[in-house]
Amino acid sequence: MDIRVGSVVISRAGHDSGRFMLVCAAENGFVYVADGKERKLSSPKKKNLRHVRATGGFIEPSGLTDKRLRQTLLAFAQEHVTGE
């Protein structure tokens, strides 16, 4: 799957392993991800592409707040786990 800005990914490595995150930017084999709680949209985490897995989900990042991002990722995670 293609990972681009707005993609929902799962962290595969690091202290945030297993968390759903939003890709805020991508460049030179790295992505910048945020979850709205530990990593805010204003200061996303730089991660190697090998350390994230695409889920196929997409969230439009324009006009998104940290609170709305947390709510959307939580709903996405619950949907992803239950398989609906």
Task: Supply the key terms.
alpha+beta, globular, 5 strands, 84 residues, SH3 type barrels
Mean pLDDT figure: 91
What is the chain-wise order of helices and strands? EEEEEH
Provide the CATH top-level class: Mainly Beta
Strand content: 25-35%
The general outline is globular
Helix content: 10-25%
Total beta strands: 5
At the fold tier of CATH, the topology name is SH3 type barrels
Give the terminus-to-terminus CA distance: 20 Å
| Strand adjacency order, main sheet | 4-3-2-1-5
CATH architecture: Roll
* Structural class designation: alpha+beta
Count of separate DSSP helical elements? 1
What does this structure look like?
The chain has 1 helix and 5 strands; from the N terminus they run βββββα. With 84 residues, it is an alpha+beta fold. A 5-stranded antiparallel sheet has the order 4-3-2-1-5, covered by helices on one side. A hairpin with a 2-residue loop joins β2 and β3. The protein is globular and about 30 Å long. The mean pLDDT is 91.
Give the helix/strand layout.
Elements: E1 7-11, E2 20-27, E3 30-34, E4 45-48, E5 52-58, H1 66-82
Antiparallel strand pairs: 1-2, 1-5, 2-3, 3-4
Briefly summarize what is shown.
The chain has 84 residues and is of the alpha+beta class. Helices cover 20% and strands 35% of the residues. The chain has a single domain (7-82), classed as SH3 type barrels (Roll), CATH 2.30.30.30.
